[in-house]
Specification:
heterodimer; A: 357 residues; seven-stranded mixed β-sheet; five-stranded mixed β-sheet; 43% helix; 19% strand; B: seven-stranded mixed β-sheet; 17% strand; binds thiamine diphosphate; binds iron/sulfur cluster
Chain lengths: 357, 248
């Protein structure tokens, strides 16, 4: 290990999952993530592992439900319209508390939309998407290296808390090539999967994988248990990067994924004009890293600027944590358009001036 | 006194919630007996559907899953692929298998998934209170076909066994009934064969069981059996629809 290779995002996802001991992959083609399935179709059988091309995303996520219930590591991958179809299964998986990984390489929407990169599935990923009171950890890498590292982490978090986890990238991250290094990360100690239903095999009681509680009191208890777990995840698993926010800065950008890379360029360009700009980059979108904003809110003179490839979805979470203490502005593009640095810089200038006034 | 009739090991000691005269209970028992006789209880995993048998996971003593409406064959696929040595069955009603889950059953069969499906056809949606099913007969009065199933508007019933038997991945497909002692015995033989085919790795196997829903048919248990014989059997002829026998 420790070998540096040039890889396309979607293929790196496959390789990282394999190295994280993923035993089963169930998928269905959709641009811009189809190469994940193609990579797995080639590699998994070579390793004696499982690849199935399902008849639909609905079937694929239910195959994940079946395999995850037996206690093996498994995953599926898709892009926006496919994730909408998986919403049913994700809700059941959250309800039955099964660990698995769901990859969403987001494209423009709504509807069939486009095949270009977007971040417009933020609400869907972080606020449910399927029915019922549930959440799932959502990891949003900004480079292929980080994507690779977070896949191992996402599988571990899934096992640690018995929860589905999502890795959310965008079409840009999926399609570009970057050098990546696969290294053994420090693994956390994971609980035994004694709840798995893979045949009694000598066990005295039968295990049941289920999300049905006909008695409302029991269901409420189950929901309270889930909420307790989500609190633990919020406490322990929020991740973020704070970049260039030391001392006092004029404006802090809030961006994740591809957009955060564009923002790093903006920071350089702004510095040349004497405007000091920082960046808060959520790495987990749920749990949202409130702490990163708490830590920086006193440092920013004119507040925050959320930059997104959406009409403004993450900005709601930024505003919640900033809670009126500083202004929170917004710049976004939609439909598969990536915000360009000049436009963001113009917005930064505008806010800085407004702030001065 | 010698015990002559015992609860199979494959069933738990929980009383079922089925209506009086409903044949779901008989079908459960047949599966449990087969699992016992084949000696596979220890590695059997069942998948319950959405429908009246939604609580089947409480009644079978093997490991069980509850699947989303219609998705049992996909769930079973995931289980079997992850644990190829497990004996995996789905238990599904006609709404579950032939309406919302048509894609899942057709593709599990066509992939030759090494699982066994027990398909309980009672020509109606039981659990939601008697709506038209894909298998409701022409002219059949249900909650959502109050004037009788009009084939011009609602289409025709699906003969699931005939349809599945056209798929190369299916190894064994038989339609049976549990309306009489003789037919119950035949049904058990068919279920046993279906499990044996799975265990032998021959591909997808399915047994369709004609079943009653006295409650939603608005009939007494005995009238329901007569209705099944007079109306369902002519439309859904019993017998083996596909059997690859000794072939691989
Ligand atoms: C997605 C979804 N749609 C609808 C339902 C409601 N529903 C519950 S049972 C059922 C019909 C079941 O009928 P069938 O499969 O024929 O089984 P039976 O009750 O007759 O044994 C429906 C539509 C559901 N639970 N989930
Ligand atoms: S409603 Fe019909 S199918 Fe359901 S338990 Fe009662 S008789 Fe059986």
């Amino acid at each position: 290990m420790g070998d540096k290779v040039l890889m396309k995002g979607t293929e790196a996802i496959g390789e990282a999952a394999i190295r994280a001991d993923c035993q089963c992959f169930f998928g269905y083609p959709i641009t811009p993530q189809t190469e994940v399935a193609a990579y797995m179709a080639k590699k998994m059988p070579e390793l004696g592992r499982v690849f199935v091309q399902a008849e639909s995303e609905v079937a694929a996520i239910n195959m994940v439900y079946g395999a995850a219930g037996t206690g093996v590591r498994c995953m599926t991958s898709s892009s926006s319209p496919g994730i909408s179809l998986k919403a049913e299964g994700i809700s059941y998986i959250a309800g039955a508390e099964l660990p698995c990984l769901i990859v969403n390489i987001v494209r423009g929407g709504p509807g069939l939309g486009s095949i270009q990169p977007a971040q417009s599935d933020y609400f869907q990923a972080t606020k449910g998407g399927g029915h019922g009171d549930y959440n799932m950890p959502v990891f949003a890498p900004s480079s292929i290296q980080e994507m690779v590292d977070l896949i191992q982490e996402a599988f571990d978090v899934a096992d640690a808390y018995r929860t589905p986890c999502m890795l959310m990238g965008d079409g840009m991250l999926g399609q570009m090539m970057e050098p990546v290094e696969f290294h053994e990360t420090a693994r956390r100690e994971l609980p035994k999967k004694d709840w798995a239903a893979d045949g009694l095999r000598g066990r005295a009681h039968h295990n049941v994988i289920n999300s049905l509680y006909l008695n409302p009191e029991e269901l409420e208890q189950h929901n309270l248990h889930l909420q307790e777990k989500y609190q633990q995840i919020k406490k322990n698993e929020a991740r973020y990067e704070i970049y260039n926010c030391e001392g006092e800065v004029d404006i802090i950008l809030a961006a994740y994924g591809t957009t955060s890379r564009v923002c790093k360029n903006v920071i350089k360009m702004a510095a040349e004009e004497g405007i000091r700009v920082g960046l808060v980059r959520p790495i987990t979108l749920w749990p949202f890293p409130n702490e990163a904003f708490e830590k920086t809110v006193e440092h920013t003179k004119y507040g925050y600027l959320a930059v997104e490839m959406s009409a403004g979805q993450m900005i709601e979470d930024v505003r919640l944590v900033v809670n009126g203490r500083k202004p929170v502005g917004f710049h976004g593009r939609m439909g598969g358009m990536v915000p360009n640095p000049e436009d963001i810089l113009a917005k930064v200038r505008e806010l800085a001036l407004e702030g001065v006034k | 006194m010698a015990l002559t009739f015992e609860k199979p090991k494959g069933l738990t000691d929980v009383p079922t919630h089925y209506c009086p005269g409903c044949t779901h209970g008989i079908i459960h028992r047949l599966i449990a007996e087969v699992v016992d006789e084949l000696g596979v209880l220890d590695k059997t995993v069942g998948v319950a559907p959405v429908g009246c048998s939604v609580l089947a996971y409480d009644y079978f003593s093997c490991d069980m899953y509850e699947a989303a409406h219609g998705r049992a064959p996909a769930v079973a696929t995931g289980i079997k692929r992850a644990k190829p040595d497990a004996t995996v069955f789905t238990y599904q009603g006609d709404g579950d298998l032939a309406a919302i889950g048509t894609a899942e059953i057709v593709h599990a069969a066509t992939r030759g998934e090494k699982i066994t499906t027990v398909f309980v056809n009672n020509a109606i949606y039981g659990m939601t209170g008697g709506q038209m099913a894909p298998t409701s007969l022409p002219g059949q009065v249900t909650e959502t076909s109050p004037y009788g199933r009009n084939t011009g508007l609602a289409g025709y019933p699906i003969r699931v066994s005939e349809m599945i038997s056209t798929l190369d991945g299916a190894s064994y497909v038989e339609r049976v009934s549990v309306d009489s002692v003789k037919n119950v015995m035949r049904a058990k033989k068919a279920i046993k064969k279906a499990f044996e085919y799975q265990i032998a790795g021959k591909g997808f196997s399915m047994v369709e069981v004609l079943s009653t829903c006295p409650t939603n048919w608005g009939l007494s248990p005995t009238e329901a059996l007569t209705w099944l014989r007079d109306n369902m059997m002519p439309y859904y002829p019993l017998g083996v629809k596909k059997d690859i026998g000794e072939e691989d």
